[in-house]
Amino acid sequence: MNPSPTDSAGIGPVTEPTSADPVGARTAAEPVGVDPHPADPTGVGPAATGPAGANPAVDPADIDDTTVEALGKLSEALETTERARGHLYSFHQLTGHADLQLDQVVELLRASGHPEYADIVVNELIGRNVLPGRWTFQVVEEYEDGYYRFFADLEKRIRDELAGGRRHLHEARMKEQRQT
Fold first, then answer.
1. Structural domain includes residue 91
2. CA-based R_g, the chain, Å
3. 3-state SS of the chain: helix, strand, coil percent to 5?
4. Are 133 and 81 in contact (CB under 8 A)?
5. Where is this region: Disordered (predicted)?
6. How many structural domains is the chain composed of?
7. Nearest CA to 151 among 73, 67, 77, 70?
8. Which residues of the chain have pLDDT under 70?
9. Which pLDDT tens digit goes with each residue over 22-51?
């Protein structure tokens, strides 16, 4: 199973504009989730002003600093799990690649007069489960469907309730403070 770049790193493929959606196109320099045409002329953009349908009753300026810090730490923890998820995809792809490389090992062992070792590789290693009853794709799926999905949904629920769905409030405040 080869995941799309979106699955492994949170970055989608570069899309070309179409006549149906010329605004929706982005370049390789614009990561997924960044609106190339932010609605906020200050440049803070939708990340701090909130997603479409954000609760307008929650004004980011009214959220206390400790809550913003807690939401920032929660978001940072989720980003760490995103990195772990990417490492799981690396584990999955590298293990699969190694298993395929064993075909050449078997061929070379047979060609060099060591069929008994070729048979051991074929019978005991190629296609072996990495965990009892599981190949790497199953480990990735269980992580995504269990821990990762729960974490991502919980982070969104807390952010929706405390900040009206707005993301990166800490960073938005830092941007305002650090820009001259």
1. yes
2. 23
3. 60, 0, 40
4. no
5. 1-62
6. 1
7. 77
8. 1-58, 180
9. 333 333 443 444 444 444 433 334 444 455
82 is a domain residue: yes
- Exposure string of 135-152, with b = 16+ CB inside 10 Å and e = fewer, is bbeebbeebbeeebeebe
| CB-CB contact of 161 with 46 (8 Å) | no
**Tokens 């590789």, residue located:** 121
| Spatial distance between the Cα atoms of 166 and 172, rounded to a whole number of angstroms | 10
Task: List alpha helices for 37-146, DSSP H.
Answer: 46-49, 65-111, 115-124, 136-143
> What tens digit of pLDDT does each residue of 63-84 get?
999 999 999 999 999 999 999 9
- The per-residue pLDDT for 176 is 87
For residue 123, what are the domain limits?
A: 59-178
User: Which helix (H) or strand (E) segment is 162 a member of?
Assistant: helix 149-163
